[in-house]
Amino acid sequence: VVKLADEIDRYVNTSCIMSGWGYTNKSLWTGANRLQKAITMLISSTDCKKFWPQFADALDEELFLCVYNKK
User: Fold this and answer.
1) 3-33: per-residue pLDDT in tens?
2) Rounded to the nearest 10 degrees, how much is the dihedral formed by the CA atoms of 35, 16, 50, 29?
3) Closest CA to 15 of 48, 43, 52, 55
4) Is 21 within 8 Å of 32 (Cβ atoms)?
5) 20, 42, 51, 54: least surrounded by Cβ within 10 Å?
6) How far separated are the first and last CA of the chain, in Å rounded?
7) Can you give the pTM of this predicted structure?
8) For the domain bounded by 8-68, which CATH number is listed?
9) Which Gene3D superfamilies match (predicted)?
């Protein structure tokens, strides 16, 4: 987790490249064997809470980027 840039709202609806070792299979709950990369779109905190209401109380706008893939 890193501190986000000031004025993060100016990046809403722009591409976001992420990388990490996170889970790749929900049913197995196993992590990746190699670094993963994803290119997606940054969305506003308001939209984030709308798409994922179950996490709304946990979202800290200073620490988290919220992304959305329309697939």
Assistant:
1) 566 666 788 888 888 888 877 676 777 777 8
2) 0
3) 43
4) yes
5) 54
6) 26
7) 0.58
8) 2.40.10.10
9) Trypsin-like serine proteases (2.40.10.10)
